[in-house]
Specification:
Blueprint lengths: L5 H25 L5 H29 L4 H14 L2 H22 L5
């Protein structure tokens, strides 16, 4: 953190988030929903993007509104670390259920 400046920190946050979303959209548009494997890849990409965005977007937003990079990063680190197991399981369960529901909508002509 000490070796990077604020622009580098912002570029990493925005670039990583943009790359995750781009890969997800590529999977959604380039893979058809005609096999369980393709739908699993698409659903996994959606779940990953949602999870990564939950972690990364608060840091990006705080930094965007003027908070120094170190403080923005530490806020997220404190937030993630302070979640107890029951909250983590609930959040993971909700994300998993959403990914499964989306996979049913992506699945075409198999059943």
């Amino acid at each position: 953190m000490e070796k990077n400046n604020e622009k580098q920190f912002a570029a990493l946050g925005w670039g990583g988030t943009f790359a995750h979303w781009l890969i997800m959209f590529l999977f959604l548009f380039l893979l058809d929903g005609n096999s369980y494997g393709n739908v699993a890849i698409q659903s996994g990409a959606i779940g990953y993007v949602v999870t990564a965005s939950i972690i990364e977007l608060p840091v990006i937003i705080r930094h965007l509104f003027g908070e120094p990079s170190y403080e923005a990063y530490n806020f997220n680190r404190k937030f993630i670390i302070t979640l107890d197991k029951s909250k983590t399981l609930k959040i993971g369960g909700i994300i998993g259920i959403v990914a499964i529901i989306i996979s049913f909508f992506l699945l075409k002509n198999i059943l």
